[in-house]
Each structure stands twice: as structure tokens, then as C-alpha cells.
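This part of the workshop introduces the protein records we will be handling. The question running through the whole workshop is how a given chain folds. To make this concrete, we reproduce a full record directly below:
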Amino acid sequence: MSAAELPPYTPSIAMPYYTAELQEGEQRLSSVQHASNPTGQVSLEYNHGDITITMHEQEPGVEVPTYTHAGIVKGTVDLAEDSVLSVLLKLEGRQSVAAIRQDLLEEQSCLFSDTYELWKKRDGVSCPPTLDFSIPFPTTYQDKHHTATLPPSFTGRYPGEPSIWANVWYILRVIVIKRRFGSWEKRRTLSQVISYRPQSSPALPIPPNLLPLLSVVTPIPEGWQTIFTIIPSRRRGTRAIDCHLFIPAGGIYAIMDRIPFHLQLRAPADHLIKLTMRGAPLAEAATAGLSGLNLRSFDSTPPTVITPPSRNLLFIFHNLLHANSTRMDTARSANAASVRVYLQRMITSKARGQNVRQTVIAGEATLTEMALSDSEDVLAWGGYVSCTAATVNTAGFSTNAFEVKDFLVVHIKPASLESSPWIEHKHAHPIQLVPDSYRENRPASEQ
């Protein structure tokens, strides 16, 4: 196309002015609180003999110097030493894991070791009493033939059978080399443990509660996802029970989040009653398709005729289990049905080339039954689950020695398990628990 054939263009309209502050006539419909990342204003001081190290730019209240992803380790070294030949600064990371199953499997290794020369004697000049330093905290380490992401500081104790102990720790050392006699050298070392806490936050916020939309969950509302599993039947002619777990989309949640969920079991009404009730009369009544049911055996109130059976029998089931929504009296009777939703952290030791696993419950949900007015063949619960284990304070990660993973678990045990047509059902859905809350503008290091 020649210049003469080009269409005419008009100047672009200036971009409108945007601001987060409310203007006249405006109101805020919703907002998300952003986690702050202020620059630390506290210095921490440690000494050993004639060596003193001061760590700058620390947050108030930290017990040891703490650094995030791509952090800078800043500070000063103060010396009251004579005849100093050189001063070295060494930053190193180490990991260890020990698993006890039938025998002890243990392994310890160095993730990295970086040494920096702060000062060296030249031309007879004496070492100054104060040396400043500023060194980068690594973000990766070399794992055999590939580069791996540096894990956070971690201490894990998982007792039981098997037992696993795992650690990741970082140390900053100041090494002062001085002349002693003739060519003899003397080394004095100050070692200080430091903490590595890379920031990590969810990609999506926790969505609005699904409860008002629970009866019309197809299509599923924005911000939610469905985890579909089945409770298999071990008897011919008895169908499996569908299990639908609704959780916030994304699968990444902050450790301090209250994670909402909704759980539905879908099957013919008589199947659901058999799954959950120990007593035969109620289940048999539903199976026989009776048009009414005498409730004298279940309640002290006068007999009530219920029609149709399917919907109302499920309503009766909800009332009978009102006080037992979390565990359904599992502790009182081994034959009782139980429905649980909980967070689980799993650690896998890889010491000596053998995988040894152990788990810990990180948080247990409280379930509340919900009646779906437009559905006859559904049992539904809703609730929240959050991490209550004090030992869960880092995101999951993996190294060549061990790995840490998190799961959201649904555990359903049918009533009278040995004689039940259905097997015990446990599904562990992988999720990620991270230390920081959702932020709209996440740094690239967290994505």
C-alpha cells in the first residue's frame, strides 16, 4: 500500500487518570489487603571473643537474621585483634535427613558454600577495626547435574512408625586468620545461624462462599473447582457413590487462610442411607420403597408418616446426625460412619536411595450438614479447614535428600464397614500451602 492510500489517523485520546483513592460520588465495592514487605530497621549483634558481627536491616521481633528470595546479607564485622592476616566471610547451606524404619537411614550434605574475602594484609597495612560487608543470598544450588531452587530453612520432626527427622539450615561464619609464631597461623571463627524464608503467595484470592449457589453448581461458579472421585462398591448390583469436593481454584493457599469447601455425596437415596446408617430398619424401609415410615424407633415423638421416602429419609438422616457432623461418633463406635476433611503434610526421606514416608495432620475441618431443597439424592456438607499445626510454617519443597508435600484429604468410612457394600474411601488431593497471603501484584519470584 502506498503512502497515498493510507487511511487518515486522528490523534489518540489522552489516557484517563487512575487512582486507588475514592473520588467524589464513588464507593468501594470490595478490596484486598496487601501483605507488606517493609525494609527492616533493626540490627542484631553477636560476638565471640574479640569478634563481633552486626546484621543490618532486620525486621523487629525476629529471633535470628532472616532473608527472603534474592536477599542481601548486610552487616559489619568489628575486630579487637592484633596481627590479623586476613578476614573471611563464609555463607553455607546444609541439609540432613534421618529415617528409622527397620534400621537407620541417614544422609547429610552441603547445598552450597560461598567464601568472600573481606580483608587481606598487604604492604604492612594493619586491619581496620570495622569491616562492612554486603553479599547476595543464593537462590539456587547445584544438585548433581542440574540447578535446583534453594529450599527454605526447615526443621521437621515426624515421630511414629517410621520416624523421620529432617533439617535445612544456613550458617554465616566470620573467620579471622592471624599470625601466631613465625609462619604458624591461628584461626578464630564466629558462626551464626541465619534463616532463609522465601516469600510465596497464592495466585488467586479465596472466592466468595459457595453456599448460596450450592444447589445450582453446574456450571461451577468462577473461582471454584471440583474434585470428583467415587466410593467404589464391592457388591454386584450396587452402584458406586459419587463424591464431589468443591474447593477454591488454584490449589495454592496461605498457611493462615481459612479454606472454604463443600462436599457432596450423590447416589440414590437408599444407597446414601445404607452408607451412613448402622440401623437396618431405616435402610430397609428406603430399599423397599415404602410410602411411609414409622419413626417410633428413632425418636420419642409420636409416629410420623413420611412421603415420598427418598427426600424425607435423607432429611431424617441429617437430623439424626446433627451433633456428629465432624466425626459422626467414630470414637464411640467402630461401626459408625465418619466423614472427615483435613489438611495433611507428608515428608518423604530419600536417604540411601530408599523412599520412607510419614504424614502429620496439619488441620482438621468442622463440617456442617446442609440440606439441598431441590435435590433428593444428595448429602451435602460445608465448612472451613485451616492449618493449626505450629510446625507447618514453610511452603512445601523438594531436595535431593527429602521432599515435603501438602494435601487436602477427604476420608469417608461407611457405617458397619466390614459388611458395607462400599469400601473405605480416602482421597488426598495435592495442594500447596505457602507462608504469605494473597497479593494482587506478586513479585516475579513468587510466580
Notes: Residues 270 and 287 are 6 Å apart (CA to CA). The two ends are 44 Å apart (CA to CA).
